[in-house]
From TrEMBL:
It comes from the Bacteria. SUPFAM superfamilies: Multidrug resistance efflux transporter EmrE. One of its GO terms (molecular function) is transmembrane transporter activity. GO terms for cellular component: plasma membrane. GO terms for biological process: lipopolysaccharide biosynthetic process. This is EamA family transporter. Residues 11-111 form the EamA domain. Keywords: Cell inner membrane, Cell membrane, Lipid A biosynthesis, Lipid biosynthesis, Lipid metabolism, Lipopolysaccharide biosynthesis, Membrane, Transmembrane, Transmembrane helix. Belongs to the EamA transporter family. It is a multi-pass membrane protein. Its main location: membrane. Pfam families: EamA. It is found in: Cell membrane.
Amino acid sequence: MSGLLLAVNIVLLAAGQLFWKKAIWVAGGISLRSLPGLFMSPLFLMGAICYGAATLSWIAVLSRMPLSLAYPLQSLTYAIVMLAAWQLFGEAVPLSRWIGAGIILVGAFVVGLK
């Protein structure tokens, strides 16, 4: 159950980042004048909801799993967001970032070993 909660947390964190990126992208960037509209946009609000739910799931994870295990595994979010940004937003991802994401994945695997 704790692994499932952690997976939910990771997905919610990634989704929150992607919703916020899309909201900023749709708005054409941010400025002081655009902030109120940005904060009220459905995409931005979905990102905030994802982050709120991620916080609740994280509290549940911490009640069931050692922090020294859960927090490093949460770094999987970095690789997921990078892959999604490449696919969804067409962001250029240089080889160095792919290598870094691979290192993160290997590190998460090692941390997860018993």
